[in-house]
Amino acid sequence: MRDVIIVGGGPAGLNAALILGRCRRDVLLCDAGRPRNAATPLTWGVFTRDGTPPFVLREQAHADLERYETVERRAIEVVEARRREDRFELVLADGVRVSARRLLLATGLRQDLPKIEGFEIYWGTGVHSCPYCDGYEARDRPLVAYGRGHGGCSVALELSCWSRDVTLCTDGTDGDLSDKDRDRLGRNGIRIVETPIGRLEGNGREAEALLFRDGLRIPCSDVFLMPVECEPSHLIGQLGCDLTDKGVVPTKGDYEKTNVPGLFVAGDASRRVQLAIVAAAEGAMAAFAINMELIAEDTA
Length: 300
Prior knowledge:
The chain is α/β, with parallel strands linked by helices. The protein has two domains: 182 residues, FAD/NAD(P)-binding domain (3-Layer(bba) Sandwich); 99 residues, FAD/NAD(P)-binding domain, CATH 3.50.50.60. Strands 1, 2, 3, 4, 5, 6 and 17 form a seven-stranded mixed sheet that branches. α2 links the parallel β2 and β3. The two termini are 20 Å apart. InterPro entries: FAD/NAD-bd_sf (IPR036188), FAD/NAD-binding_dom (IPR023753), Ferredoxin-NADP_redctase_2 (IPR050097). This is Thioredoxin reductase.
């Protein structure tokens, strides 16, 4: 039986494996190889690695783990996870069963894009989920916040850090905007368009304009999506984790513990702030907490 199994090979899982390897823990890292940032050309906001392609960061992380002999990394999906009295039992895609004293889920979230022509084409280059990740590169260009209600208003106001040409698009609804939100948007020069969107146009490399179904066309270099409910890993449901109404796992305190004893969740599945460096920090905090629990258990 392993000390720890980590499911997910993004920044959270990789950094947790690194810390636990340095604690000489017997670790199995399982990575299905479907990172959420696969469509993102560059990773921003990472100390000393600002603007590095995601695959380069992963390759370096894999190389770092090679020096820790107690860490095994497998490119495989985990299809089932159950908690038993004193351990977690997992089934891998090849049918192999593995077990561990602690389990860390660093599986991230799956982003479901609005079903608008062009959004998938420009996902990661002109359609984004995080202005803190991609806003600087879109600075001083015509930007669109896609959303409704107070959340859509908040994204539009956030974008005013990077551009004075911001439009909030509610895609065919009245936006559920309060009078207070409408007034605040107006005072900050943010236009509201409530017409249904037809498609996002571009040259194949960059987005250029939003075309609405009534014929209106506005310049648009980048669309930023309001945070929406995302689908977490099926393993989270199998293990009985609590979920918020946004589909993320609420963790206890600062150390990524869940309501399930011995189960930790780090990365996008547990926070709204979805910067790579934040996910990596959460992985480190989870690793610290896991190691302290194991020490307490072994020295009782």
